From TrEMBL, chain A:
One of its GO terms (molecular function) is ATP binding. SUPFAM superfamilies: P-loop containing nucleoside triphosphate hydrolases. Keywords: ATP-binding, Nucleotide-binding, Transport. This is ABC transporter ATP-binding protein. InterPro entries: AAA+_ATPase, ABC_transporter-like_ATP-bd, ABC_Transporter_VariousFunc, P-loop_NTPase. Residues 5-230 form the ABC transporter domain. Gene3D superfamilies: P-loop containing nucleotide triphosphate hydrolases (3.40.50.300). It comes from Pullulanibacillus pueri. The keyword Phosphoprotein does not apply.
TrEMBL record, chain B:
The keyword Membrane applies. This is Uncharacterized protein. It comes from the Bacteria. It comes from Pullulanibacillus pueri. The chain crosses the membrane at residues 20-40, 46-71, 83-108, 136-157, 164-189, 201-223. Keywords: Membrane, Transmembrane, Transmembrane helix.
Automatic annotation (TrEMBL), chain C:
It comes from Pullulanibacillus pueri. SUPFAM superfamilies: Winged helix' DNA-binding domain. SMART domains: HTH_GNTR. GO terms for molecular function: DNA binding; DNA-binding transcription factor activity. Pfam families: GntR. This is GntR family transcriptional regulator. Keywords: DNA-binding, Transcription, Transcription regulation. It comes from the Bacteria. Residues 9-77 form the HTH gntR-type domain. The keyword Thylakoid does not apply.
Length: 299, 228, 121
């Protein structure tokens, strides 16, 4: 499979502030990937560099095997929908979609019309009169109807309720099934999207700490809880990524491993409780305050 | 379709800013003057600088269009080059259109004897002295100067932020002060006025061309490196 | 919309288990057509590639087979294969565990048997 995004040692710094630090990853074509992490971790900066809206301080970045900066062939294949996208305030929804239709070669007008209806957007309403959620819907419609070979959504649904978000997921999956393309999705609603993702990348403080297939992340960590002394005995020699709770003599620890039969047996003997950890929980543990996440090397 | 043409089409959708607002401003200024003309029943010829309003407006539009449209266009995967070309194309087309319209109004003004009340709004002495082509070029070039000056100022802001604008205007101020000081110190003022007086309005407008070229180049260079 | 509840296990395994369950319960009789991966994807709101992985797992085990250009079908004898597999899993997942727990609590094999009989009443 060919690589749609290929990034090597990408760094972006603003003076002393390093927003993105030595990040390398690649995305193969027609995959749905999640770029996850806390706010301000550097996700948006990376996406801006992929689309040549920001310039890297150092490192190499190839999109569809070419550099994206002022590259019409590459940019034509990218649609980047971001939370902070600005629209001309006097344009009405219809104008924005008409402009988008001229700019994206794969634009599907019928699909756009259907989405407009599903998301209940008033065609004639001016951009400056739209609510936050409606504005997000405009972005989502552009992102889906453009059918760009590389579609990037950066927190696309600010102000949208669960029903509208669900609508987005449904349309995304259905349209992706009919028209496979590479999708990069950044969000903090990890639980909602983790099932859609095939590849998961986690950015923490500008660094890439996880780049894994989503399904192999499921069940790749577990939590153990019980008496502090017993927990400490149990975690000897294991990869502990976080010790989130401590209450009196009780504590818990999250371990980066799939619990094996012996682990369960040992936990049983020590009177400890083993629970599974979802992708969202795992990422919270890895990127949370007292995490030792960076020490973890994933195979 | 050429992407630069698409950018022009995008600007065309902003009908209010490009086509309606400037003429509403200009024509309301005109109507007020016309009203005054009727009150004085056309006994005295009226000369007015109301025409300036459309030029001032276009300077502002040159500034605003970049802030409003640049982020939108770049966000939708438009190349900076194409945005620049399309926007410049829009400037040229609109400048030419305005120049033609202004000449038409000037024509009506002269044939109707100043709209029947000796009002000189569109056809002014000195400014409209030259041939038709000269008059057209005068308006055209003046309009382009406004657009691209606004565009350049805005591109400095987009590229370097408030600090950049501050430095730019600071430098301009210093340059201007030095110029006026030198003129006063060496007593060049008479020569300067003499030089200006020697030229027709058209001739002077041609002397702004080097500035126009500077605006065009500088705004291009900055837009190429502007980030979102 | 339907959801897979367990986010701590690979989804492709859960998809495979869902299909197996349907085969056991008779919802998917032998030689019947299985929904396409895209249908699975939109039904469970999951990535089509993941759904395909789950389906392919069952193809590898001879439970499903592919008719070119038409889709996936349940193999003849698939129910037997699934039942056998599930029985083995039942022994590993439940019986062994139960025996361990019973030992811990000092329940003899006899007592255990009695308990099971009681549960059937």
């Amino acid at each position: 499979m060919s690589k749609v995004v290929d990034i090597h040692n990408l760094t972006k710094s603003y003076g002393k502030d390093i927003a993105v630090k030595d990040v390398s990853f690649s995305i193969e074509s027609n995959k749905i990937c999640g770029l996850l992490g806390r706010n301000g971790a550097g996700k948006t900066t990376i996406m801006h560099m992929i689309t040549a809206q920001l310039f890297p301080t150092s490192g190499d970045l190839k999109i569809f095997d070419e550099r994206p900066y002022e590259n019409r062939d590459v940019l034509n294949k990218i649609c980047f929908i971001k939370e902070s996208q600005k629209y001309p305030p006097n344009f009405c929804v219809h104008d924005v979609l008409e402009v988008a239709a001229t700019l994206f070669p794969n634009w599907d007008q019928r699909f756009a019309k259907r989405l407009l209806k599903d998301f209940n957007l008033p065609r004639k309403r001016r951009i400056k009169k739209l609510s936050r959620g409606m504005l997000s819907s405009v972005g989502i419609i552009i992102g889906l109807a453009s059918r760009a070979p590389l579609t990037i959504f950066d927190e696309p649904y600010l102000g949208l309720d669960a029903v509208a978000r669900n609508l987005f997921y449904n349309h995304l999956i259905e349209d992706y099934a009919d028209h496979p393309r590479t999708i990069l999705l950044s969000t903090h609603l990890i639980d909602e999207v983790s099932k859609i993702l095939e590849q998961v990348m986690v950015i923490d403080k500008g660094e890439l700490i996880i780049n894994e297939e989503a399904d192999s992340l499921r069940g790749s960590a577990y939590a153990v809880a019980g008496l502090a002394t017993k927990v400490d005995a149990f975690i000897q020699g294991k990869k502990v990524i976080n010790k989130p709770h401590s209450l009196g003599g009780f504590t818990s620890a999250v371990i980066m491993d799939t619990p094996k039969f012996e682990d369960r047996k040992q936990a049983d003997l020590l009177g400890l409780n083993i629970t599974s950890v979802s992708i969202q929980e795992l990422i919270v543990h890895l990127t949370g305050g007292n995490s030792q996440g960076k020490a973890v090397e994933l195979q | 379709m050429n992407p630069a043409i698409n950018v022009m089409k995008m600007h065309f959708k902003e009908k209010w800013s490009w086509f309606f607002a400037p003429w509403i401003i200009l024509l309301s200024s005109f109507l007020i003057n016309l009203f005054v003309g009727y009150l004085t029943s056309g006994d005295e010829p009226i000369y007015t600088g109301g025409l300036c309003s459309i030029f001032a407006y276009m300077l502002v539009l040159g500034i605003v269009t970049l802030t409003h449209m640049f982020h939108f266009a770049i966000g939708l995967s438009v190349r900076r080059n194409d945005f620049y070309l399309g926007t410049s194309g829009m400037f040229f087309v609109v400048s030419a259109g305005i120049a033609v319209l202004l000449l038409l109004f000037a024509f009506f003004e002269t044939t109707s004897g100043g709209w029947g009340v000796q009002l000189h709004f569109f056809h002014l002495p000195y400014l409209n002295d030259g041939s038709l082509i000269e008059q057209f070029l005068l308006y055209f070039v003046a309009m382009l100067n406004m657009f691209f000056l606004g565009f350049m100022v805005s591109s400095i802001y987009q590229r370097f932020g408030q600090y950049g604008l501050f430095v730019f205007f600071g430098a301009l101020l210093v340059l201007f002060s030095c110029g006026t000081f030198l003129c006063t110190y060496y007593g060049w003022w008479m020569d300067v006025f003499h030089w200006i007086g020697q030229h027709t309005a058209f001739g002077l407008s041609m002397w702004t061309l080097p500035f126009l070229v500077i605006y065009i180049i500088v705004s291009y260079l900055f837009i190429r490196r502007t980030t979102v | 919309m339907n959801t897979l509840t367990d986010d701590s296990r690979p989804i492709f395994l859960q998809i495979a288990e869902q299909i197996e369950d349907d085969i056991i319960k008779g919802g998917l009789p032998e030689e019947s057509q299985v929904p396409s991966t895209n249908q699975f994807a939109s039904f469970y709101q999951i990535n089509p590639a993941t759904a395909a992985k789950g389906v392919n797992l069952l193809v590898d085990q001879g439970i499903l087979y592919k008719k070119r250009g038409i889709g996936m079908f349940v193999t003849k004898g698939a129910r037997e294969i699934v039942m056998k597999k599930r029985r083995e899993q039942f022994y590993e997942q439940y019986v062994i565990k139960m025996k361990q727990e019973a030992e811990k609590l000092g329940i003899t094999a006899e007592e255990l048997k009695e308990m099971i009989m009681k549960g059937e009443e």
